[in-house]
Design brief:
Distance between the termini: 18 Å
Helix content: 25-40%
Radius of gyration: 15 Å
Strand content: 15-25%
Number of helices: 6
Oligomer: single chain
Shape: globular
Number of domains: 1
Length: 184
C-alpha cells in the first residue's frame, strides 16, 4: 500500500485509546489492530497496556508491523507485541507523536491522554476514525467537527466492518497525496 509517488514509504495507522479497558474494549481494539495488519499498514501505538496492547496483539497476529512510541527512556517499556520501540523520554508529551504518527488516527475508548492525541491529530489534519462503541472520548467525538480548523468530522465507525471500509478509503486518500518535497 505505499503511495504511488513514494514506493518506499508504507502507510501508518495510529491506534490510540484507554490504557485501562474492559473485555469488550480489548476485543474491539484487537480486531481494529488485525484490520491494520491485514491492510498492510504499520500500527503505531503508545506501546503500553490496555487498548495499545490489544491493538498491537491483533496487528501482530495478522502479520503486521507494530511500532511502540513509549513515554519513558527504556527499550523494554513496551508491550510484548511491539516490533520497534521509540522511547521518547517525554512522558505524556509523547502524545504529540502518537497523535500525528499515523496517516490515519483511530480512537478506541479513551481518557485524558486520548483526547490530547485526538486534538493533535485534528490540528495536524490527520483523518480520525472513532470506534464509538468503545465509549470514552471515541464515543464523544464520533461524528463531530471539533473546531473551526477543519470542515470535516471525526468518522464514526460503529462496527469493525464500517471501520475497515473507512480505513481503506482514508488510506487510499493518503496514498494519493504526493510526498512533500521536504520529505523526499
Amino acid at each position: 500500500m505505499p503511495a504511488p509517488s513514494d514506493p518506499h514509504r508504507r502507510p501508518q495507522v495510529a491506534i490510540i485509546g484507554s490504557s485501562e479497558a474492559d473485555d469488550a474494549m480489548y476485543a474491539l481494539a484487537e480486531q481494529a489492530g488485525a484490520v491494520v495488519g491485514k491492510l498492510g499498514a504499520a500500527l503505531v501505538t503508545g506501546g503500553r497496556g490496555g487498548v495499545m496492547a490489544a491493538a498491537s496483539r491483533g496487528c501482530n497476529m495478522a502479520g503486521g508491523i507494530v511500532i511502540a512510541v513509549t513515554p519513558g527512556t527504556g527499550m523494554d517499556e513496551c508491550n510484548e507485541h511491539a516490533h520497534y520501540v521509540i522511547p521518547t523520554g517525554m512522558g505524556w508529551a509523547r502524545n504529540v507523536i502518537t497523535g500525528i504518527a499515523g496517516d490515519v488516527v483511530v480512537a478506541v475508548g479513551g481518557a485524558a491522554g486520548t483526547i490530547s492525541e485526538i486534538a493533535f491529530a485534528w490540528m495536524y489534519n490527520r483523518p480520525i476514525l472513532a470506534l464509538s462503541g468503545a465509549g470514552g472520548w471515541a464515543r464523544d467525538v464520533a461524528g463531530r467537527t471539533l473546531d473551526h480548523r477543519r470542515d470535516d468530522a471525526v468518522i464514526d465507525c460503529r462496527t469493525i466492518a464500517e471501520f475497515e471500509m473507512h480505513l481503506r478509503a482514508e488510506l487510499a486518500k493518503a496514498q494519493a497525496k504526493p510526498t512533500p518535497p521536504e520529505c523526499r
